[in-house]
Amino acid sequence: MSWRYKGGLILIIAVVIAWVTSAEVTQGVFENYEQPFAVTYLGTSVLALYLPIAFFKDWLLKSLKTRTSESGNSAPETVDAICAGPDSPGKTNRKQSNFAMENQEALSLVDSTGEEVRLLEEERAFVSEANDDDIVDQEEKMNSKQMLKVACTLAPIWFVSEYLMTAALARTSVASTTISYSTSALFTLLIGAFLGQDSISVVKVISVFISIAGVAMTTLGKTSTTDQSQSDTTVTYSLLGNLLAILSAATDGLFAVLLKKYAGEGGERVDMQKLFGCIGLFSLLALWWLVWPLIALHIEPKLAFPQSPAVGGVVLANCFVGSFLYDYFWALGVVWTTPLVASLGASLAIPLAMLEDILIHGRQFSLIYILGSVQVFLGFVLANLSDWFSPTLALV
Fold first, then answer.
1. Which of 20, 63, 64, 117 lies 20 to 30 Å from 385 when distance is taken between CA atoms?
2. Which of 253, 241, 250 is nearest to 175 (CA)?
């Protein structure tokens, strides 16, 4: 398990914890400001702030390289190594170049024996082929035009997923929304296999089945609240919220699979900050008009600003923490691990949401609900162990 994978798991768990808290805040906001579209639009548009951050980072690294180049020839290489990291192509190329030079020197010493010359020539050809592969990998790095195309593809999917989740929180509880959203693992597995981005193995199917079964157990588990009186309108409203959460799970699974496809293994093909900055910029400039047909269809209430600075401050803070920070961290978790692991990790929000509902709303949960939460966690653990099993267990 590489350091990237471990880091991705840590990010996913941290995001799940923050998401449940953010969802509680979002649901509290709707008591005084029931504007799901406005909250979604602001949360996705704020991602555009990653663009100046990314450009400043590039400028800073370029300045460091320029200054260190004046002090010595070896300094720029040190800066490149620090900036690029342990798995950078540049560092690999330098190692392979040194290896090729050693082979060349050895070749000149043993050219009297044909057999050794032939073997060393094969080694040199192997190094040359490896260098060619690295050049191809470097050429696969997305340019600005390609990144804009990818952002224009992903931004509407991301916006729809965020809006559906926000609308679900406006209609039902955090626990119910989390349970319905946890079905994203099933959508992610099917979409990944359909698009050829992931294989379906016995272990993955079992892990998804265990997780979905746990979700079903939490759905069937009885929940008692301090106020059991619910009208038919409230029940219908809650069912609509659960349906919106399931639709959000499906679109989120599609987004995760496509993000992994475009970003490549480990995210080496794209600068994630620039990509999310472009997604935020696209949402800011191209998706604002959607509020008018939603209002005309009576899906959204009439657009209004927060009634007080305090409510506005809570909305801005929630968008910054919940969207700007943790949505980006979740995307890194998807790229550094796998979309399926990230989707199953989102299911860990069920026990966390259960705890917050107990502490904040005074709800009580049955034993079957608690056992279902444990089962969801087991599904997440099993998915992370899938690579340890024999490849012969693959189905597709």
1. 20
2. 241
Query: What is this structure's pTM?
Result: 0.75
Biggest alpha carbon distance in the chain? 95
* In contact, 48 and 37? CB cutoff 8 Å: no
pLDDT at 114 over 60: no
- Beta carbons within 8 Å of 69's beta carbon, 6+ residues apart: 75, 76
Alpha-carbon span 164 to 231, nearest angstrom: 24
Could you give the CA distance from residue 36 to residue 291 in angstroms, rounded to a whole number?
A: 10
Q: Tell me the two tokens of residue 279.
A: 């997604």
Residue-level pLDDT at 158? 95
What DSSP assignment string belongs to 350-366?
HHHHHHHHHHHH--EE-
Using CA atoms, how far apart are residues 279 and 201, in angstroms rounded to an integer? 33
Q: Are 14 and 329 in contact (CB under 8 A)?
A: yes
Question: For the packed helices 174-181 and 232-263, what is the interaxial angle rounded to 10 degrees?
Answer: 40
Of 242, 230, 218, which is closest to residue 168 (Cα–Cα)?
242
Rounded CA-CA distance 96/178 in Å is 49
Name the packing angle between helices 339-346 and 202-220 (round to 10°): 20
Using one digit for the tens of pLDDT, what is the confidence trace for 348-366? Answer: 777 777 777 777 767 777 8
3-state SS assignment for residue 83:
helix
Of 5, 36, 2, nearest in space to 318 by CA: 36
Count, residues in the chain: 396
Alpha helices (runs of H) in 170-266, residue ranges in sequence order: 174-181, 184-194, 202-220, 232-263
